[in-house]
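Dear colleague,

Thank you for sharing your sequence with our group. We've completed the structure prediction you requested, and as agreed, I am returning the results in plain text so they can be pasted directly into your records. Please verify that the sequence below matches your submission; if there's any discrepancy, let me know and we will rerun it promptly.
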Amino acid sequence: ITTGKVEANKDAYKSSDLIKSRRMFGVEFEMLHAQRPTQDMYKDFASKTPALWGITQDASLNSSMNGIEVNTCPIAGANAEKSIREYTQYLTSNDWIVDNSCGLHVHLDGADLLSSYVLLKRSILAFIVFDDIMLSMLPDNRRANRYCSPLSASKAVNNRDRNFIKGFDLK
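Please find the predicted structure tokens below.
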């Protein structure tokens, strides 16, 4: 599995069949195993997980099964796609599954947004405008939990405090 510092390899930023952006991102995989993993299973799992990725428990997963969460390091481009494909193939072939308690979360690197107030405001506004569309892609049980609140529920953008949006000059 491809690992290591993505920044050190300029080819890591090359687009791939699926990932066209050069933006760094991280992924959280939530998964379950039908049987209680043995020490040997955990050792094999850990050995197949890239060294810079993290493994942790996740309290939001189905409690009747053995859940786990894997977090990638910041990755990008073709190397990211290759790593994710290889890792998910390993998971599938070793009986790791998902149910409606599991999710896959993508965290985008937004450091470049901080260099421009206008760019930051445009990005925030895009999330507000498309919030309902993004939430509509989720199953009902994921939309209605405390980990996935609509932005409209946020104090910054609710009906009591529209000052946040009023000042948007998109020039």
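Summary note from our side: Strands lie at 25-33, 54-56, 66-71, 96-97, 104-108.

Kind regards,
the structure core
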